[in-house]
Design brief:
Layout (H helix, E strand, L loop, with lengths): L19 H11 L3 E6 L2 E7 H5 L20 E2 L4 H11 L3 E5 L5 E6 H11 L8 E7 L5 H9 L5 E8 L5 E8 L5 H9 L3 E6 L1 H18 L2
Parallel strand pairs: 3-4
Antiparallel strand pairs: 1-2, 4-5, 6-8, 6-9, 7-8
Length: about 220
Amino acid sequence: MIAEELISNEIPPLKTSDSGLKALSWMEEFRISHLPIVNHQDLLGVISEEDIFNLNSPEEPLGNHRLSLYKPYVKSHQHIYEIIKLVADLNLSLVPVLDEHDKYLGVITLPDLIKNLAELSSIKDNGAILVLEVNERDYNLSQIAQIVESNDCRILSVYINTIPDSTKMEVILKLNRTDLRAVLATFNRYNYIVKASYNEIGYDDMKERFDLLMNYLNM
């Protein structure tokens, strides 16, 4: 998934003639804490709730204020993982998207990112989750996949989590089956450390939590 496929058509950009009060009203309406300011198709920057609260006269046009706006954005061809990293690093509720000529195309919101990440990582698919702990030098995805597939099972997604101040890492697998007994037995036979496993019950609980999160973000 790339940025141009994730653009929301619901959130309009601000103009310099719009007031801070109008910006706050839109933020409340769309449940976001940032909005882009655009002049024609040129992105001037992103304004936050905090920026507006710090204005002396929020009822005046934004163009009347000396704003020190930062200008985060992604290009239309960038992958969803790059977008998520930017949003997480800067604690954004949305991120503007620019084309190859640096012209404004729209924004990607945090709820839309989460929804699409859920689809990309197969979170919404039925199945179990397995967490392995391995030494970094021993990590071998082909062997892990072979163990899983030898038990008539398939890996839907895989993530790596490095452990700080350690030479170990976690390998998080989403599998297409809920009964992990045979898979667990094979990993134990190959001396893998299984840190955690979540069967159908664990999956249902995670899906319920995910649905609650999405309902909250869309309120």
